[in-house]
C-alpha cells in the first residue's frame, strides 16, 4: 500500500507481483524513481516498449505514462514526488532542502538523452550506491512506527544527486549531431553552474577549457549553431518556465536565483526570447 512519510512524497513497495495496476498518481506526479529489485518483463513508456530486469532503474518526469507488464514475479520500489511538493515551500517542508531537490530533478527534466527513461551509469559503484539507498528508504518505510526522518531525508538527497550526475546534459534539439567531447563538456559545465553567473563568463569559460577569450564563443557557435550567450540565456529561461509551472516562487525570487537584476529585467528578457510576459505565461498554465 502507498504511504506518505513526507507530505506529498509517496513511497510504494511491491513484492513478488505478477500484475501491476495503472498508477493513479500519474496526473499529479512531478518526478518518480522506479527500481526493479527482482523480476523481468516490459515497460510501455509513452507508447514505447522497453524491457526491465533485476536492478533496473527508471526515472519519470511530468506527463510520462507507463505500464508494467510482468513476465516473472516482480518486486519494485517507487518514490514519487508529487507536483504539490514544490508548492508553498515557504509554509510546508521548511526543514527539507526542497530547493536543492528541485534543482537536482530539474537537471533531469531538461535532459533528453534518456528517451526511454532507463538510467545508465558511468560506474557500477554509482548504481550499487543508488540501489542501496533506495532499499534503505524502503526499509525505513516498512518501519511504520519507528522510521527515521533523518535517514529518509538524507538518503533522498543523495539519491537525487546520484541520478542527476549520471544523466547526460547534452540537449540534442539545440546542438548539431556532431560528436565533440569538448562541446559536451562545456555544455555540462554550463548546466552544472547555471546558478553562478561568474563561472559562466566568457573569460572564466575560456580559462576552464584552455581557449582564448575571443575564440571560445566562435568555437561554441560553430558546433551548436547558437551563440554562447544565447545558449546560456535560453537554458536559464527553460528553468524559469519550469519554476513557473511547478513552484509558487515569486518572480523576484526566480530572478535572484538565476542571476537577473530584478523581476523587471527577467520579465523583459523572457518577453524578448519567448514572446510573452511572465504573467501571461503563468496564466496560460491554468
Put the structure in a nutshell.
This protein has 286 residues and is of the alpha+beta class. It has helices spanning 98-109, 124-142, 149-166, 181-192, 202-208, 213-224, 228-246, 251-257, 263-274, 278-284; strands at 3-6, 9-17, 29-38, 41-45, 48-52, 56-60, 66-70, 74-82. The chain has ten helices and eight strands.
Q: What does this molecule look like?
A:
One of its GO terms (molecular function) is sequence-specific DNA binding. Pfam families: AraC_binding, HTH_18. This is Helix-turn-helix domain-containing protein. It comes from Rasiella rasia. By secondary structure, the chain is of the alpha+beta class. The protein has 2 domains: 164 residues, Sandwich (Jelly Rolls); 104 residues, Orthogonal Bundle (Arc Repressor Mutant, subunit A), CATH 1.10.10.60. 44% of the residues lie in helices and 18% in strands. The chain contains 10 helices and 8 strands. The strands form 2 sheets. Strands 1-2-8-3-6 form a 5-stranded antiparallel sheet, with helices on one face. Helix 1 packs parallel to helix 3 and helix 2 packs antiparallel against helix 3. The longest helix is centred in the middle third of the chain and has 19 residues.
According to CATH, what is the topology of the largest domain? Jelly Rolls
- Low-pLDDT stretches are 169-179
Q: What would you call the structural class?
A: alpha+beta
Quaternary structure state of the chains depicted: single chain
Q: Measured on Cα atoms, how large is the radius of gyration?
A: 20 Å
Strand order of the largest sheet: 1-2-8-3-6
In the CATH hierarchy, the architecture of the largest domain is Sandwich
> Distance N terminus to C terminus?
32 Å
Protein name: Helix-turn-helix domain-containing protein
Keywords: DNA-binding, Transcription, Transcription regulation
Pfam families: AraC_binding (PF02311), HTH_18 (PF12833)
Organism: Rasiella rasia
Amino acid at each position: 500500500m502507498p504511504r506518505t512519510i513526507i507530505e506529498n512524497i509517496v513511497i510504494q513497495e511491491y513484492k513478488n507481483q505478477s500484475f501491476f495496476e495503472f498508477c493513479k498518481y500519474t496526473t499529479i506526479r512531478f518526478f518518480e524513481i522506479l527500481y526493479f529489485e527482482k523480476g523481468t518483463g516490459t515497460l510501455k513508456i509513452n507508447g514505447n516498449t522497453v524491457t526491465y530486469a533485476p536492478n533496473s532503474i527508471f526515472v519519470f518526469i511530468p506527463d510520462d505514462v507507463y505500464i508494467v507488464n510482468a513476465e516473472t514475479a516482480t518486486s519494485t520500489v517507487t518514490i514519487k514526488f508529487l507536483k504539490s511538493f514544490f508548492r508553498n515551500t515557504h509554509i510546508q517542508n521548511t526543514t527539507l532542502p526542497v530547493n536543492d531537490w528541485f534543482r537536482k530533478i530539474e537537471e533531469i527534466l531538461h535532459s533528453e538523452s534518456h528517451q526511454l527513461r532507463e538510467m545508465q551509469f558511468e560506474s557500477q559503484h554509482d548504481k550499487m550506491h543508488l540501489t542501496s539507498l533506495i532499499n534503505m528508504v524502503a526499509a525505513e518505510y516498512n518501519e511504520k512506527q519507528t522510521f527515521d526522518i533523518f535517514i529518509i531525508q538524507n538518503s533522498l538527497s543523495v539519491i537525487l544527486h546520484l541520478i542527476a550526475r549520471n544523466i547526460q546534459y547534452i540537449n540534442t534539439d539545440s546542438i548539431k549531431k556532431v560528436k565533440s567531447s569538448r562541446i559536451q563538456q562545456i555544455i555540462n559545465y554550463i548546466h552544472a553552474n547555471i546558478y553562478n553567473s561568474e563561472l559562466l563568463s566568457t573569460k572564466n569559460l575560456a580559462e576552464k577549457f584552455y581557449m582564448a577569450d575571443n575564440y571560445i564563443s566562435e568555437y561554441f557557435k560553430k558546433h551548436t549553431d547558437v551563440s554562447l550567450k544565447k545558449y546560456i540565456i535560453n537554458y536559464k529561461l527553460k528553468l524559469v518556465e519550469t519554476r513557473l509551472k511547478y513552484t509558487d516562487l515569486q518572480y523576484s525570487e526566480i530572478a535572484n536565483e538565476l542571476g537577473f537584476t530584478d523581476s523587471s529585467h527577467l520579465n523583459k528578457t523572457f518577453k524578448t526570447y519567448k514572446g510573452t510576459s511572465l504573467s501571461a505565461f503563468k496564466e496560460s498554465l491554468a
